Task: inverse folding
């Protein structure tokens, strides 16, 4: 099948491929999730793209600088957890890279916990089955909440693929298809680079 170019505003010089045709470029839980989503909405999931990159370029600032990408195209997945009545509650929060997730007010309130904090790197990697720097809400464990800032459901987002050696490009339509995804107004505040 011949691939036709897709217009992703702000992508710069990074070349992409159809994600569903290149599932070898994403982590196994991400591949399964994309296949499951495609069974329900093949048109939306069919627009997803993947780009192979050098793992050394996985961090947002390096990636955007190297490929002349608009930093606002990148979205970061931050894992946050808190406990209530002895039960840990975990949320994968997706926010634009030009913003900062509001852990202490918004996430804490949504999770209904007294204190919320960023999950340690080793726990995040082990529990998600994904590489640090590549963690994405696509394919996370079903018991985790998915919180989407309102900015990420508009237009395209460059997100992790579960691996440091690639990036996924998805539309807000796909993000809202994720099981249990919730759009949370004010989830993120403008960051220092906004």
Result:
């Amino acid at each position: 099948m011949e691939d036709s170019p897709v217009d992703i505003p702000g992508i710069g010089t990074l070349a992409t491929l159809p994600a569903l045709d290149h599932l070898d470029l994403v982590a196994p839980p991400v591949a399964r999730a994309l296949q499951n989503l495609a069974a329900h909405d093949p048109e939306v999931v069919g627009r997803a793209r993947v780009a192979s990159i050098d793992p050394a370029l996985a961090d947002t600032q390096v990636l955007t600088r190297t490929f002349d990408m608009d930093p606002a195209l990148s979205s970061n997945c931050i894992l946050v957890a808190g406990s209530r009545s002895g039960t840990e509650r975990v949320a994968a929060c997706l926010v634009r890279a030009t913003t900062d997730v509001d852990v202490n007010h918004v996430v804490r309130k949504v999770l209904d916990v007294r204190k919320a904090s960023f999950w340690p790197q080793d726990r995040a990697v082990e529990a998600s089955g994904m590489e640090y720097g590549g963690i994405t809400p696509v394919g996370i464990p079903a018991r985790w909440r998915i919180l989407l800032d309102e900015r990420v459901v508009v237009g395209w987002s460059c997100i992790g693929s579960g691996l440091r050696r690639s990036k996924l490009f998805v539309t807000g339509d796909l993000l809202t298809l994720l099981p249990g995804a919730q759009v949370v107004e004010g989830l993120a505040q403008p960051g220092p680079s906004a």
User: Anything to note?
Assistant: The longest strand covers residues 75-84. Residues 146 and 188 are 14 Å apart (CA to CA).
